[in-house]
Design a protein that fits this description.
single chain, 343 residues, alpha+beta, six-stranded antiparallel β-sheet, globular
């Protein structure tokens, strides 16, 4: 179990999301950086989709109420256990009573916007519509259907995994992985800088259904410009600031299904990228869709950061997702070999 001692307004329990319910008007929710969640679970020998705590506003502080193995992935926020610095993307064993702290200052904000706390056995909150993710707009799932606050107690599933009286074995932990922004081949091209348009985060985009309805200048600006993530951005969508995009002629579309990654353009011409808490339908014209393989990188871009778009084909987007799956498979094999050697 974990006791929340301090948490910003956006801390919540998330897993890989609630799939299969868009047709009923229920959004996916789930971790913004799904890759960080999956890697943390693999490091702890958990199934990749177990729930963890997503932390987006710092500082964050939690007390472990039992001996348990854990990992902190995603943004590097100078994690400490009882004041002792911890390496990022590393597995640790906490003893009952120890306090984990993630700092809100003194770190490189270009390193990411969201951190993830994963524990062996995952976060044991009720399963709602096949997921433990918090659906903030619907106020269900996760921990009581809301963000975490001081005093909350979040249970872990560790007792079911290894028995309530069996402590974690230190020899099975104490290792880490290279962060994906350094391990994946496209990373050098995509690394972000908060506040510097010369090193904007690059994300790959497939042109969408209404792409050809935008005028030539707007299409050129879409690809050639850098876009700033505005302060009006959240888990529902990233609102961008940049040159306005205009249609060749006015058009109206009926509301239709949309998914995370879709880039809609409202009448003011400033694009909105739908994120994990996106509504299931929308009617604004779509200029493109950020590919699934790059949504984790986009999710780590903080408010005020700059992004740019790179045009790719649908076939290239599928290959990128295959590359990501292959990377996770390699990582899983390497972790298994380590655990065999440590046993």
């Amino acid at each position: 179990m974990i006791e929340i001692l301090a948490c910003g307004p956006l801390g919540s329990v998330q897993d890989l999301g609630r799939e299969g319910y868009l047709r009923f008007g229920v959004g996916e929710a789930g971790a913004m950086d799904r890759l960080a969640l999956m890697i943390g679970n693999l490091m702890l020998d958990n199934p990749a989709g177990l729930a963890g705590i997503e932390i987006a506003v710092f500082p964050f502080q939690a007390r472990f109420l039992q001996d348990i193995a854990f990992a902190v992935t995603g943004a590097d926020r100078a994690a400490q256990l009882d004041g002792r610095p911890l390496l990022p993307w590393w597995t640790q064993v906490a003893r009952a009573g120890q306090v984990l702290t993630l700092s809100g200052s003194g770190v490189d904000h270009g390193a990411g916007a969201r951190s993830y706390l994963l524990c062996e056995g995952g976060m044991d909150v009720p399963l709602v519509l096949g997921s433990r993710s918090t659906q903030l707009r619907g106020r269900f799932g996760g921990h009581m259907g809301r963000t975490l606050v001081q005093g909350d107690i979040v249970r872990s599933g560790v007792a079911e995994r290894r028995g309530a009286s069996s402590p974690p074995q230190d020899c099975s932990y104490g290792f880490g992985v290279l962060p994906p922004e350094h391990a994946l081949p496209w990373a050098a091209f995509c690394n972000a800088g908060a506040g510097n348009p010369d090193i904007a985060t690059a994300v790959r985009v497939v042109p969408a259904a209404e792409y050809r309805n935008f005028d030539d200048v707007s299409v050129q600006n879409f690809w050639d410009s850098v876009w700033r993530i505005s302060a009006q951005s959240d888990r529902y969508g990233f609102r961008l600031a940049g040159p306005g995009l205009a249609l060749r002629e006015p058009m109206e579309t009926r509301s239709h299904g949309i998914v995370p990654g879709v880039i809609q353009v409202p009448p003011n011409g400033q694009p909105i990228i739908q994120m994990r808490d996106a509504q299931p339908t929308g009617g604004y014209p779509k200029v493109g869709t950020v590919i699934e393989a790059d949504l984790w990188r986009l999710s780590q871009a903080p408010t005020g950061a700059w992004i740019r778009f790179v045009c790719v084909s649908y076939e290239a987007s599928v290959c990128a997702l295959d590359d990501l799956d292959a990377y996770l498979a390699r990582l899983k094999r390497h972790i298994a070999l380590y655990r065999q050697a440590a046993a």
